Amino acid sequence: MNRQFIKTSLSVLLSTIVMSLHAQKITKYVDPFIGTGGHGHTFPGATLPFGMVQVSPDTGTEGWDWCSGYHSSDSSIIGFSHTHLSGTGGADYGDILLMPTIGAWKIQPGTKENPSSGYRSRFRHETEEASPGYYGVLLDDYKIKVELTATTRTGFHKYVFPRSPVSNIVVDLGHGISDQVRESFMQINGNDEVVGLRRSKGWADDQYVYFVIKFSKPFKKFAVADGDDIEVDGRKMEGKKVKGIFRFSTRENEIIYAKVAISSVSIEGARKNLAAESPGWDFDKIKHAADSTWEQTLGKIKINAPVDSVDASMVDQKKIFYTALYHCFIHPNIYNDVDGQYRGMDKQIHTTKTNHYTVFSLWDTFRALHPLFTLIAPEKNNEIVQSLLDDYQQSGKLPIWELASNETGTMIGYHAIPVISDMILKGLGDFDVNTAYEAMKKSAMEDDRGLKYYKLHGFIPRELENNAVSKQLEYAYDDWCIAQVAKKLNKQNDYEYFLGRALSYRNIFDSSVGFMRGRNIYGQWNPDFNPSQVSILGNGDFTEGNSWQYSFFVPQDINGMVEMYGGEQKFADKLDSLFSQKPVVDNEHALDVTGLVGQYAQGNEPSHHVAYLYNYVGQPWKTQQLVNKIRETLYTTGRDGLCGNEDCGQMSAWYVFGALGFYPVNPASGQYIIGTPMFESVTINDGKPNQFTINATGISEDNRYISSATLNGKQHIQSFVTHGDLTKTGELSFKMSFQPNKEWAQQLLGRPVQEIITPGKEIKTGQLLFMPYEVSGKTLFYGKKQVTLKTETTDAKIYYTLDGTVPSTTSKQYNGPFSLTKSATVTAIAISKNGAQSEMSTLNFIRAITKGPKAAYPKITSNITIGTTYKSTAEVLLDGNFGSYNFRDGNWVATNNSLTNITIELDKPMWVKELKMRFMENTGSWIFVPRNIQFSVSTDGKTYQQLDLIENEIPLNHQEIAIKEFLRPCNTKEKIKFIKVDITNIEKLPGWHPGAGNPAWMFSDEIIIAY
């Protein structure tokens, strides 16, 4: 054959391949299986952008890696339900499950270990298919091919049955993902329709899902059941484990379709949804429409470069990118029916003129997901903000983590505020701005979640509020957002007040160690501080992280933070240390702290902005290096291709921005900080009049450093762009190189600036005049107590009284230690040089029997079974050390005994005035005060005199974390030698609790024997 002919043919073939691949639809690059392995917690099923329905296979319903109901480690499927959460760290949903089977009726799902024990079926991953709006799989046990597609409010099932005289479809209302059924019912109409309700309690306390199911073929036989009792030909069933079984006979490869519509409002609402969105039986038409909808949505960002046609790595990068963009548009979800009705936060039925949304993982998504919507889908973000404001008007508060019109209270901050303020500050708010401001301000002025102390002291005391450091840092950022809106609305007093609160991050920075650090109400720094120690939600000073990760969260005042660290070079060195530290290995507390580069954790949100901070100190090449490393190593095309929870789109939104070449470090600032682009050419808002293109000349796998840049043809020396730049027709062009250009954007004019500038006068940042405290920290003593007072405000004087009265400058001034020989209340204040006065300390010193060299008891015995997680023993009940609000501090005795008996034998008979015992109440951590406490005393250990019984009411909802003391006077006529305490715990968590039915924990600390 002629060599030139071969060469020409190959050229034509390659050109054809290039044109073919370049013309491929965007949806071909989406792989919904990415994130279904590892700890991504995504689901592979069919949904539409912001769809109410997510119809997807469930392989498991319990455990952290089954938050979405599916995990790639499984080999059997329970069935296909219609609501799912994408990437959350908490589990719920899995409503209205359908499962096709053949053979005998089975009404239990079976187990992973033995799928044949129920209707569950084995499957193989090689038979699975998934694309936007579609999922398919072969059920090996039944040889049934299942295909799923969806509209916004309906799921469409296609079952290809084998030839079988006995084919079935199971509808299981008892099934759910880590929730419990409050009530449910199923009603069968005619021979092709099923309607009903599944109302459940889980992460969402009270969720309503009404449904209508239509079958394409009449069923020949049916039955309903609640539990194990089958009622053949029963038309209606109510209960908590309601199931329906529908029998057909099928020919070889016969198709039966099932359409399922849901509604939070009513069966009629579900019926309207079905009629409007799935009126016929054309599965392929619905599937094609779903694909087209996704094609249009994903086309908001178009990768122009055709280089992927001959570069497999570029194909993978496009797959990762468009799968990430796909994940960005799964949540939040439309919650209203086609007629606009939805169930609100007040459980009443409301009507919206546009769309009302649910599933707001705001702690995660305020950082990048909502800023992405602001950039490429502002009309949707407007609807989302209006939904947040509707929630506020119905409940009195902006949502924190809203799910199915329920406030879960999960995570920290009030991060609806940056989402709302971003739209207002960019002039995009198509909602009532005054109502929005009212809602933001009200959220910030509450007294719960540590805000009472934050407002009063300028910091959150670590012993009075869990996760105090994380909460303060995130409140301070949200307060900056409020201040900017106040300024825009000419509310000068509010502007100055909230700007002061935005600066309060400085109150928890310990310059002696160079970290954000917890301090107690007296201003003392956490003495056991370890910057690498991870703490979890509800415990410790940080939320799902440590001080390394949180010490850089000051997006509202980055330049101020740099100065706080000692200047640019010291700050850059600190960042270098972050990325070079030994990674976290604390498996107990670090489930969410994953995707580690040193102590940087890409797998959890507090770190997401940190790699971009080098730009602020003139070292953008380090940002370019790190962003590329994170993209290349922590996002892959595998099922475990996400290094942490997807978190309702935030993990993917980080990648989308990172691949475009910039990131919103301060989401409400209007600035996007440049990292490094991934693609040769990308267009934002493709096809619109205001489309913006990012080009990268010379980009390759090796060339990831920016050599130079132009913006709209002019030299661009800045390592940031603005929202105004990106929302106009324009072009940002980079020249890429193998070596970093350390001169580009290094000068001050090239750096982004984010600092708080006070408006010409001193801004109050919170009261930092600390109350006096007793240096030893012990207020129980035996015999004599030497009291040493101190205040962390070094130039302040201390005044005190011993009779419980309020001290003043006329009271006794503290000049040195003094002694107590009996119980006394010391009240003390600190007064600074300028006359400012601290809050008053009330120190109750109690002369009591405690463990020590002069202690008056020889032993304590009990039946306490100590929890294995907590290493303390019964001895700490009499060691003179009070446990703190951190229930893991080692000073608490933890048990879930239903009955606890404690006996104390004193060294010699003594007159005892009073008996007290302290307990922790932290219902969110399953810790409850006991049901009752009985103190008894004896002279001989045989005959006991019972003091009055102490009885407690069990709370009906979550309470503020508290330490409670229970006491009884001891007015005996003889000296006592034995003390007995009998305690009855509540045994099981109450029905309102998310962990209802599990054992409750009792945390007791000190038995106080006052004499």
TrEMBL record:
This is Alpha-1,2-mannosidase, putative. Keywords: Calcium, Signal. SUPFAM superfamilies: Galactose-binding domain-like, Six-hairpin glycosidases. Residues 782-842 form the GH29D-like beta-sandwich domain. It comes from Solitalea canadensis (strain ATCC 29591 / DSM 3403 / JCM 21819 / LMG 8368 / NBRC 15130 / NCIMB 12057 / USAM 9D) (Flexibacter canadensis). The keyword Iron-sulfur does not apply. It holds the Pfam family Glyco_hydro_92N. GO terms for molecular function: carbohydrate binding; peptide-N4-(N-acetyl-beta-glucosaminyl)asparagine amidase activity. Its cofactor is Ca(2+). One of its GO terms (biological process) is carbohydrate metabolic process. Residues 269-737 form the Glycosyl hydrolase family domain. GO terms for cellular component: cytosol. Residues 1-23 form the signal peptide. The keyword Calcium applies. It comes from the Bacteria. Monomer. Residues 29-263 form the Glycosyl hydrolase family 92 N-terminal domain.
